[in-house]
Amino acid sequence: MSRFFSKKYDALVPYVPGEQPQNRQYVKLNTNESPFPPSPYALKLARQAAGDLQLYSDPTCRQLVQTAAEKFGVETDEILFTNGSDEALNFAFMAFCDPEHPAVFPDITYGFYPVFAVLNGIPFETIPLKDDFSIAIHDYLGIEKNIFLANPNAPTGLALSKSDIERIVESNPHHVVVVDEAYVDFGAESCIDLIHQYDNILVCGTFSKSRSLAGGRLGFAVGNKNLIADLNTVKFSTNPYNVNRMTMAAGIGALCDESYFKNNCKAIMETREWAAKELKKLGFMLTDSVANFLFAKHPNIAGKELYLLLKQKGVLIRHFETDRLQDYNRITVGSLEQMQVLLAKVKEILEERT
After folding, report:
1. Are 178 and 149 a contacting pair, CB within 8 Å?
2. Rounded to whole angstroms, how far apart are CA atoms 61 and 242?
3. What's the rounded Cα separation, in Å, for the pair 18 and 108?
4. What pLDDT is attached to residue 249?
5. Among residues 141, 162, 142, 143, which one has the least CA distance to residue 151?
6. What confidence tens digit (pLDDT) does each residue in 272-310 have?
7. How far apart are CA 71 and CA 345, in angstroms?
8. What are the two backbone dihedrals, phi and then psi, of residue 352, each rounded to the nearest 5 degrees?
């Protein structure tokens, strides 16, 4: 750090993104990207938009908002697009949290939540997951704090039902419940329709996973029009042109190509179930993930050792160093071919240890 770095960030520990190696080709199963390329229609529209890059993008994302509003069953003033869902989440911390309105979230969840809290000077607390890594909903009922829940949760892949989320929202009427649905399209229930029943739920989503646009950086938030107006106040006070022209166009294409989206989600879910069964045959223990990743540990090999050995063999997975997670690894569900490579390398490692 330089001698000029503000002391207000003394406690800030930056988020650590997954490895994006440039020095060698890996079977890359560490950052929950889609194994499928973007929709051909999304690419076509993005290429067309590239011809106007000398012009600013539409700060209201009008065409994208109209397309998404129709797709999600909301009004155009009930949705906001952002530079990845991380920006939507950060906007929520900025707009709704302060020393009088602290944040709360599980102790094991998306690693950006505590970073956003510290970055914005917001007090927060974490609530431990149960021994099986599930969320105990009673811990969140009537606590009257701003709540952030990844559903499905990361890195566990476990999800609460929509009815459980609704109980949490209903019991905290004076605070916002932010539901981060980055992985919802792989088998969990979306809570988007709850925004028409409750004015204190904000649902965030991303095009990075199920719609194959991780490199495009497109996220969104859906909620009561007053919540969205609050987020727009923050957006237009920081970065009005937050979504670029090509990404905006690609987002429209991705939304319009519904069959491509559904077929890819179906393929990923089928591959997830196949890979989970094969890993269990090898002695792995897994959570019941409904995300596009598996969360697994093996009784005979440490999580970090497996991660390092697989990396040596050209397969990248994600390892976490924290106490409760150190035995586990998070494995992105790639294509069937990629998962077959993973299984083959895991078998090699286990055989080499016997």
Report:
1. yes
2. 9
3. 17
4. 98
5. 162
6. 999 999 999 999 999 999 999 999 999 999 999 999 999
7. 41
8. -65, -20
Domain closes at, from 222, 256, 290: 256
Residue with tokens 């965030």: 204
pTM: 0.96
What pLDDT sits at residue 266? 98
Only one residue has tokens 């099986």, namely 132
The answer to whether position 131 is within a domain reads yes
In a domain, 6, yes or no: no
Q: Among 193, 223, 256, identify where a domain stops.
A: 256
Whole-number Å distance between alpha carbons of 51 and 166 = 45
Question: What backbone phi and psi angles, to 5 degrees, belong to 103?
Answer: -105, 155
Q: Return averaged pLDDT per consecutive 10 residues of the chain, 354 residues in all.
A: 92 90 89 98 98 98 98 98 98 97 98 97 98 97 97 98 98 98 98 98 98 98 98 97 98 98 98 98 98 98 97 97 95 98 98 84
3-state SS string over the chain? CCCCCCHHHCCCCCCCCCCCCCCCCCEECCCCCCCCCCCHHHHHHHHHHHCCCCCCCCCCCHHHHHHHHHHHCCCHHHEEEECHHHHHHHHHHHHHCECCECEEEECCCCCHHHHHHHHCCCCEEEECCCCCCCCCHHHHCCCCCEEEEECCCCCCCCCCCHHHHHHHHHHCCCCCEEEECCCHHHCCCCCHHHHHCCCCEEEEEECCCCCCCHHHCCEEEEECHHHHHHHHHHHCCCCCCCCCHHHHHHHHHHHHCHHHHHHHHHHHHHHHHHHHHHHHHCCCEECCCCCCEEEEEECCECHHHHHHHHHHCCEECEECCCCCCCCCEEEECCCHHHHHHHHHHHHHHHHHCC
- Residues 189, 161: contact at Cβ < 8 Å? yes
Domain extent at residue 22 = 18-36+259-352
pLDDT of residue 207: 98
Same domain, yes or no: 86 and 192 = yes
